[in-house]
Amino acid sequence: MTIQWFPGHMAKARRQVTEKLKLVDIIFELVDARLPLSSRNPMIDQVIQQKPRLIILNKMDMADEVETKKWIRYFEDQGTRAVAINSLEGRGLQLVTKASKEILEDKWNRMIAKGIKPRAIRAMIVGIPNVGKSTLINRLSKKSLAKTGNMPGVTKAQQWIKVGKEIELLDTPGILWPKFEDPETGLKLAVTGAIKDSVIQMQELAIYSLRFLEERYPERMMERYGIDHVDEEIVNTFDHIGKKRGCFDQHGDIDYETTAEIVVRDIRNQYLGKVTFDYRDEMIEKEEA
Ligand SMILES: Nc1nc2c(ncn2[C@@H]2O[C@H](COP(=O)(O)OP(=O)(O)OP(=O)(O)O)[C@@H](O)[C@H]2O)c(=O)[nH]1
Ligand SMILES: [Mg+2]
C-alpha cells in the first residue's frame, strides 16, 4: 500500500518538535507495541538529535508479550532505555518516571554538584498519529493535582502538566508522521489504525492480515474462522469467511468488501488475541541483509 503524506505537513510537524526541543530535558518517544519499529518516524534521530530519550511501547495490552520483551531488549542493546505501558488503563506509568530519573541521573547530579537546586524533569511526548499520545497525557494529568502555570522564560502559551513531584510534561505532543517506502510498513500501520480507513484499500489489507495470521497465529485463525491457511485462490478464503459471517450482497453473493472489513475489525478489536506485527528476529535479519 502506498500512501503519501504531504511533505509540507511533515516539515511543519517536524519544525514544531524542533522548536520545543530546547524546553525539555527528555523526549518520550511513543511507539505502538504491536509495531515498535514500523511506528517510529524514520527521521526521529535527526529531529531530536542528542536529546535524552525514553522509548515507550504503548498499547502493550494489545501486543504479543514475548515480542514486547524482545523489543525492549533490542532498544536497550542499542543504548536507548525502553519501557512498555498501557495508557488506556494506566499500567506501567511508574516505569516512565523511574526510567526518566535514571536516564537523567548524571545530569542532575552534576547540577546538584554545581549548587543548582534540583527541579522537576521536563518532558515532551512525540509519536505518530493514533499511537496514544493524548491518552497518555490525559492519564498522567489525571494523576496530578493541578496543571502548572506558564513558566518564566519559556513561550507564554506553553502549558505544563505536573506528573507527581518529579516530572513536568508539555501538554501538547509532537506529531511525527510515519514515512515508508516499504509497502509492508504501510499495511502494518493501516491494520493497527495509524492510517485513516478512507485511504486504505480494505481488501488488500485483509489479504495481508490473513496471510500474516496464517504465518504467525494459525491456531487463532482456526478458532475464529475455521481455517488455518489461506487458499492459493484468495477468493476461496474470502468466500469461506464471508459465508461464515453472513456477508452477502442483495443478490446473495459474497460481499468481499464487507468480509474484508470484518477481518480487519476483528484484528483491531482483538478477536484474534494479542498480536505483534513487527517480529524482532525477522526484522533484524532483514536489516542485516
Ligand atoms: N488498548 C489500548 N488502546 C489505547 C492505548 N493508548 C491509547 N489507546 C487508544 O488508541 C486510540 C488513539 O489514542 P490517542 O490518545 O487519541 O492517540 P494520539 O496519539 O493522541 O492520536 P492523534 O492525536 O491522532 O495524533 C484511542 O482509541 C485510544 O483509546 C493503550 O495503551 N491500549
Ligand atoms: Mg491526540
UniProtKB/TrEMBL annotation:
It holds the Pfam family MMR_HSR1. Keywords: Cytoplasm, GTP-binding, Nucleotide-binding. It comes from the Bacteria. Residues 14-178 form the CP-type G domain. Gene3D superfamilies: 1.10.1580.10, P-loop containing nucleotide triphosphate hydrolases. It is found in: Cytoplasm. InterPro entries: G_CP_dom (IPR030378), GTP-bd (IPR006073), GTP-bd_ortho_bundle_sf (IPR023179), GTP-bd_ribosome_bgen (IPR019991), GTPase_MTG1 (IPR016478), P-loop_NTPase (IPR027417). Belongs to the TRAFAC class YlqF/YawG GTPase family. MTG1 subfamily. Required for a late step of 50S ribosomal subunit assembly. Has GTPase activity. This is Ribosome biogenesis GTPase A.
